[in-house]
Amino acid sequence: MEKENKLTEGTSEIEEPIEVPLFQVPECYVYLIPPRKSAASYRADEWNVNKWAWEGTLKVLSKGEECIIKLEDKETGELYARAFLRDGEPHPVEAVIDSSRYFVLRIEENIGGRLRHAFIGIGFRERPEAYDFQAALHDHQKYLNKKKTAEEMEQQYQKSSSVDYSLKEGETLKLQIKNKPGGTIRSKFFEQGLNNLSLEEKANRKDSTILLKPPPPPPAPLSPVATDARSPQYHLLN
User: Fold this and answer.
1) What pLDDT tens digit does each residue of the chain (238 aa) get?
2) Which residue numbers delimit the NECAP PHear domain (predicted)?
3) Hey, which end of the chain has fewer CB within 10 Å, N or C?
4) Full 3-state SS string of the chain
5) Are the CB atoms for 62 and 20 separated by under 8 Å?
6) What distance in Å separates the CA atoms of residue 73 and residue 228, rounded to the nearest whole number?
7) Separation of alpha carbons 129 and 81, rounded Å
């Protein structure tokens, strides 16, 4: 029992990432399309869209760094085909140029140790379903890009933090600090106000002298004679 416990404790099992659903639609139609003969884009009008080869559920699942597109039977859940969206590999979905509801899906399967690929056409009944399908794939691609950026930033941080800035034995650190004279710095507000000082402020300054003119003398009073001559004579009547 002790040996079994020790073996169990020493064994580290790698946990497989869980599948997180991103999108699901119950009606998806599969078309068997002819091989592409040139580099031209696919066209849905070259298929017989009213005659599909298979009908079932389409699921978009996120599993770690992989995004899996599964085509499953509605009733039994049996896997019909699947495609993978992986970082650094060609995108498995290509839109046709004449419709927004049809796509070409690059499916793959490991048969006898060999990876096989094939191209099939898929279509949705409604346009919003097709838009949501593309949005789910786009969200997973954004997740991969953000994760890659975070890993690069972490690597840069680890490289920069590994540099040793500590002083070795016998090393000294010298700092040169230049002192600026404090009397040469003036506030702009007071510098502009030097030319607008009041009279009293200028009088208190030692380097300025203000000369004031004496006031003029008061006017001389008029004589009584001149006053009587100028004033009119009034006669009282009895």
Assistant:
1) 554 554 445 445 667 888 899 999 999 999 999 888 778 889 999 999 999 999 999 999 999 889 999 999 999 999 999 999 988 889 999 999 999 999 999 999 988 889 999 999 999 999 999 999 999 999 988 887 787 787 678 777 777 766 666 777 777 777 676 665 555 545 444 455 555 555 455 555 555 555 556 666 666 665 555 444 444 544 444 4
2) 19-178
3) C
4) CHHHHHHHHHCCCCCCCCEEEEEEEEEEEEECCCCCCCCCCCCHHHCCCCCCCEEEEEEEEEECCEEEEEEECCCCCCEEEEEEECCCCCCCEEECCCCCCEEEEEEEEEECCEEEEEEEEEEECCHHHHHHHHHHHHHHHHHHHHHHHHHHHHHHHHHHHCCCCCCCCCCCCCCCCCCCCHHHCCCHHHHHHHHHCCHHHHHHCCCCCCCCCCCCCCCCCCCHHHHHHHCCCCCCCC
5) yes
6) 138
7) 19
Both tokens of 232, joined, read: 């009119």
Amino acid at site 54: W
